[in-house]
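Key result, reporting period 2: structure in, sequence out.
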């Protein structure tokens, strides 16, 4: 016996399948669109375009570009270019974002139709009867909710695009700050080496003058102590320079052969003559801040989730299926079946309450984020401006005054008005001023990078003022 094949399906099921295919076709992958928007944001606001390396050829081209940059001392802009176009850690972040985007796209698509087949044989009195059943079903509830879920997915994609842009901004700021720390640490090391050489000469002079009876044991011991502390500070500065350099190497993702060729400028850039006002620094407004765009996308998605929950808490499923049955010696049966869960034990009130609470929490997070954004921007600008003023104060006031004092001390020594010990003590005082000036210049450029990121809504750590460089001079100040 050969069962009859089905020649048509119920009209309602056919219409449902057609609508499902049409709607699902709209949920296209947006991986490239998300990256292109983030790269455009980075190019517009950071002056550097990110690169997504998705093949051996692109990775080879990126490595060659890095090799060309390493032929000369690495600038801050080149450090950002390497971080956004070569670093394996950053490439991993891009791939993670692409995976999340693909998951969001998949979540907006309908579940596949379910095909069921059954074959039953009845044997009685030496005869066999064959019963074949076939059914094809789709979820009408998922079909009805598809437009809402597609909008949910779009909210998720907006969040992912803003999150990826924020990742680019933070990566660029981290690279710039790591470069500043590395250059400043090497600059401080070179100065400490010069101080160490001068301290060694002073200690040797004190030893000779002690031998001739011109220095007391106390005076000689002070010079030797200063030399010993200068050696310790040089060792510490060397370790800090190495640590800052390796931190930059890790952030840029340089392999050993490229890390060995990395050279840095001898000095940090000069301080700007003027800086932007607080009003100019906050002109971007809250609408363009990435952190607020992320939270707004979350709020939109949660609001749509709440709408879906109001429906699914009552009707948690609605499946329509077309069925065709063939039985030996009988006409073909055609029909449909509907499956609906009955809300007898779970009335959905808990899900509705949870959805409303999540929406309320998201709404308040948005309000708090706006308050925090204003506060952080004011704080970042205050740190930026105070570090600029402090660095200028050291450059224009403290260091020149210390230099003038040293010149006057030299004149007094030449006129036999003071002795060698007073001249050496003044040199020790000048060391602290120069070291603090270097720290202030470093802190300004760190604050500059932090402010740029904060204006775009991608906060980074603000620099903390440090005064570790003054220890040797303070230890030897009294006499």
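The corresponding designed sequence is given below.
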């Amino acid at each position: 016996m050969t069962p009859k094949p089905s020649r048509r399906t119920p009209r309602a099921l056919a219409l449902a399948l057609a609508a499902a295919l049409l709607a699902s076709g709209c949920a296209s992958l947006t991986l490239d669109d998300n990256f292109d928007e983030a790269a455009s944001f980075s190019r517009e606001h950071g002056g550097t375009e990110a690169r997504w390396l998705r093949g051996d050829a692109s990775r080879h081209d990126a490595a060659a570009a890095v090799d060309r940059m390493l032929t000369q001392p690495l600038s801050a802009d080149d450090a950002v270019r390497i971080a956004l176009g070569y670093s394996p850690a950053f490439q991993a972040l891009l791939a993670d974002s692409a995976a999340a985007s693909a998951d969001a796209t998949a979540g907006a698509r309908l579940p596949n139709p379910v095909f069921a087949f059954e074959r039953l044989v009845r044997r009685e009195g030496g005869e066999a009867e064959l019963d074949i059943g076939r059914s094809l079903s789709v979820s009408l509830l998922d079909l009805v909710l598809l437009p809402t879920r597609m909008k949910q997915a779009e909210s998720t994609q907006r969040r992912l695009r803003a999150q990826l842009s924020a990742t680019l901004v933070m990566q660029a700021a981290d690279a710039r700050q790591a470069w500043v720390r590395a250059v400043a640490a090497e600059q401080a090391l070179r100065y400490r080496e010069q101080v160490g050489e001068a301290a060694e000469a002073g200690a040797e002079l004190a030893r000779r003058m002690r031998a001739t009876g011109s220095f007391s044991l106390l005076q000689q011991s002070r010079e030797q102590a200063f030399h010993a502390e200068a050696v310790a500070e040089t060792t510490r500065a060397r370790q800090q320079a190495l640590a800052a350099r390796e931190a930059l190497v890790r952030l840029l993702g340089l392999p050993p052969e490229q890390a060995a060729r990395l050279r840095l400028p001898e000095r940090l850039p000069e301080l700007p003559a003027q800086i932007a006002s607080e009003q100019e620094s906050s002109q971007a407004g809250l609408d363009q801040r990435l952190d607020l765009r992320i939270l707004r996308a979350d709020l939109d998605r949660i609001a749509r989730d709440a709408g879906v929950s109001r429906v699914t808490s009552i009707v948690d499923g609605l499946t329509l299926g077309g069925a065709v049955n063939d039985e030996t010696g009988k006409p073909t049966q055609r029909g449909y079946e509907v499956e609906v869960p009955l809300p007898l034990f779970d009335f959905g009130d808990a899900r509705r309450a949870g959805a409303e609470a999540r929406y309320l929490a998201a709404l308040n997070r948005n309000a708090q984020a706006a308050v925090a954004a204003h506060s952080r921007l004011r704080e970042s600008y205050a740190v930026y401006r105070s570090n600029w003023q402090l660095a200028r104060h050291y450059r224009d006031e403290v260091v020149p005054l210390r230099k003038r004092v040293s010149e006057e001390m030299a004149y007094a020594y030449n006129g036999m008005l003071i002795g060698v010990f007073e001249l050496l003590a003044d040199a020790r005082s000048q060391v602290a001023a120069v070291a603090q000036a270097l720290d202030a210049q470093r802190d300004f450029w760190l604050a500059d990078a932090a402010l740029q990121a904060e204006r775009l809504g991608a906060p980074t750590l603000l620099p903390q003022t440090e005064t570790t460089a003054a220890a040797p001079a303070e230890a030897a100040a009294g006499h």
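The two ends are 117 Å apart (CA to CA). Strands lie at 114-124, 127-139, 319-327, 330-339. This case is discussed further under Risks and Mitigation.
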